[in-house]
Amino acid sequence: MTGPLRWIYSNSYKHLKELAEAVGVHSYEYQALIDMDISSDRMVIIQQNTQAWEEAFTDEELTMVGERVSTFLSEVVHDMVEAVTSEYLTSMSQREI
Amino acid sequence: MRTVKSHQAIHETAWNEADEVLRLAKTLRASSDDVRFLQVVEVFLEIVEARILAHAAEEEHGLYREWLRANGQNQPLIDSLVVEHEALRGLAQAMEQAMVRQQYETVVSTMSELLQVSAAHSQHEEKILGTIALAGEASL
Description:
The complex is a heterodimer.
Chain A: E1 2-4, H1 5-8, H2 10-22, E2 31-35, E3 42-48, E4 51-57, H3 59-64, H4 67-96
Antiparallel strand pairs in A: 1-2, 2-3, 3-4
Chain B: H1 4-30, H2 34-70, H3 75-100, H4 104-134
Helix pairs in contact in B: 1-2, 1-4, 2-3, 2-4, 3-4
């Protein structure tokens, strides 16, 4: 079953939201999901436009927002900002041409 | 945001969007489609946060201060509107907590309540904006 991270691991979602908002990325700009179909692990899937980031964690890591979860979410937020900046620069350079 | 008509349009667009999602959530709940219900409630809360609560925060930091600068006697009116904003924030928070606790019936009723409070608040605010505009402190 795939469902929103927000309702299933609310602490991890809150952490993601705080990290994203701190750099101006709003929650409606990405989708954070959790796939619980894989063995005992939980797959976190974060999608933004055509891009997606995935990583498997244990139930405990996601409930407690463990170090690995925190690092993953920070990296995703960083990549999301990079992607938006890159798209913006590309569109601007195309406009100049 | 400073004219009655454009302000009304902002309120109506956000409310209609949220109301459409609420109807869908009710249908999914009635058919016990929990997987899609969870997704639709998230969309509802995103609309509330991005369109209704963000608009409320903008008003508190901009428009209401302008009304106050124009006339200090507007303070009680502004206070009453801020109280309504707080009620909306409280309902959004209650909805989020109910979702995490999987209290889905509470979620649906809170969604309905949030939209009722939002509609009443919009009417109240538009009436005040109209009065302030007639007094020459804002545009119609």
